[in-house]
Fold:
Amino acid sequence: MSVLVLTLIILVGSYCAGLLGSLTGLGGGVVIIPLLTIGLGVNIHYAIGASLVSVIATSSGSAAAYVREGITNMRIGMFLEIATTAGALIGAMLSLLIHAPVIAVIFGVILIFSAIMSLRKKDTTVLQTESPLAQKLKLNGTYPTPDGEVKYGVRKVGGGFFMMLFAGIISGLLGIGSGSLKVVAMDSIMRIPFKVSTTTSNFMIGVTAAASAVVYLQRGYIEPGLAMPVVIGVLLGALTGSKILVHSTSSGWLRWVFAVIVTILAVQMIYNGITGKI
Structure:
């Protein structure tokens, strides 16, 4: 296979990954890494390195728009980034010590969890109550709606912080945004409104990935020739996905398609990890 053909395959595959990730809100990394490792036989550490660079690019592009709209809670994002960045550094260093088949099995398990979380019904209840710690840290905020600004409170700050630490470790270990784990931390534990938690998570993902990418770059696992088509493909796919989502009346069927694809990829990753094919 020539370099040009390989680059085109990666570009098209990354575009599809970015499109799916954008439509479901879980990022393209969950599709890119199985594509590179299972489909093209790329070493999983190089695949993770390329995925991390694409996460930084997509997060940087979309996060700025959400911040301008006033949806992202900057104080929560900066506070929780302490946990995710520390976790990402730990995860990135662990990935260099853990054998590739073990990483593949862990990746498959997280993929299945992500598929389940993508089908979970979102809780739209907005809580006004706040914890004393959230009050001291001034984490409570508002977000704009067509009917005016909505106030919300934040609860269980400590529990959310430690869940974010775990999400950071998984992100650094596997090279994905860990969107499903961040949803657990901010939606289920801290009870932040879904719209705010999604945009704030997007704002945080780029910083988390950048911390992990430093470790991979130092070890030589970020290959420009591989990362370049991945970044371009994911960015174009994410842009297309955002435009489709705006005009789509329902994304329920998209989530089911994503869940099926991700589950198939997860089973293949676990099987290849157990049999030592990765």
